[in-house]
Amino acid sequence: MSQQIDKRETARTEARYDRIAPIYDLMEVLPERQFRSWREKLWAQVPKGRVLEVGVGTGKNFPYHLPDLNVVGIDISERMLDQARQRAEELGHPVELHQMDAQQLDFPDDVFDAAVATFVFCSVPDAVQGLRELGRVVKPGGKIFLLEHVRINEPEILGKVMDLLDPLVLRLMGPHINRRTEENVRRAGLEVARVESLAAMDLVKLIVAKPARASHGRQLNNNRYEGDGREEAIFEEGCMDA
Ligand SMILES: C[S@@+](CC[C@H](N)C(=O)[O-])C[C@H]1O[C@@H](n2cnc3c(N)ncnc32)[C@H](O)[C@@H]1O
């Protein structure tokens, strides 16, 4: 099933993050103090094996990758990836990085034991399509971990304020502030295994999901993968370093 991608909005997202990449870490200094414990909590639950980190950004999760994980990171923004590469080098952390769109992953079906995204599905233009792609590339029985800020539903007035401010925040900073990510996970056909509210008014949630099917006749991607030589046989069918 090939899905229509909004190329214009996707290009805008890429350009926004390319633009803020050099100052992204600076912009996040204060909130990051809180994010650290949430990142630690999430990564402590990720099962060992081959893990896809989507929207890896400047690599803020790298310090929390446990040693028995083999992580492949992707991001749409080459400038964010530049920062991530620098961080990986500074930390001496081996992580394979590719520029790629979460809405159309260049990986075959069922190749990852888990997938992780932190503060990403607020920015992916078609979040449902991106989540569907995670369900496709994660093996049946694997897990998908999402740490996301979401729309406040109670009190509804705050949700409405978020709806009003959303276009401005999107333009200035990159993310949507009114995403209904838990609903999007279900709409993507994933099974919600667990949801933990981490902040007041459910502003931030840790969502653990699973691919909801044993097999759904997904298409294999025939692009050729040119990786770093550490790939297992499962990658022989191909994915591409864009
Ligand atoms: C708010 S940042 C979060 C970065 C990082 N995960 C973190 O926790 O600090 C969102 C990231 O998602 C990436 N992103 C947005 N849309 C994407 C897409 N369609 N495919 C892949 N990455 C995307 C952006 O380039 C950016 O690096």
Description:
With 242 residues, the chain is an alpha/beta fold. The chain has a single domain (7-237), classed as Rossmann fold. It has helices spanning 7-20, 24-27, 29-43, 78-91, 127-137, 156-173, 181-187; strands at 49-54, 69-75, 96-99, 112-118, 138-149, 190-197, 204-211. The chain has a seven-stranded mixed beta sheet with strand order 3-2-1-4-5-7-6, sandwiched between helices. Helix 5 (127-137) packs across helix 7. It is globular. The structure holds S-adenosylmethionine.
List the helices and strands and how they pair.
Blueprint: H1 7-20, H2 24-27, H3 29-43, E1 49-54, E2 69-75, H4 78-91, E3 96-99, E4 112-118, H5 127-137, E5 138-149, H6 156-173, H7 181-187, E6 190-197, E7 204-211
Parallel strand pairs: 1-2, 1-4, 2-3, 4-5
Antiparallel strand pairs: 5-7, 6-7
What overall form do the CA principal axes indicate?
globular
**Arithmetic mean pLDDT:** 87
How many individual β-strands? 7
CA-CA gap between termini: 21 Å
CATH top-level class:
Alpha Beta
**CATH fold-level assignment:** Rossmann fold
> How large is the radius of gyration?
17 Å
Order of helices and strands: HHHEEHEEHEHHEE
Query: Which sheet architecture does the biggest sheet show?
Result: 7 strands, mixed
Helix % is 25-40%
Q: Helical stretch count? A: 7
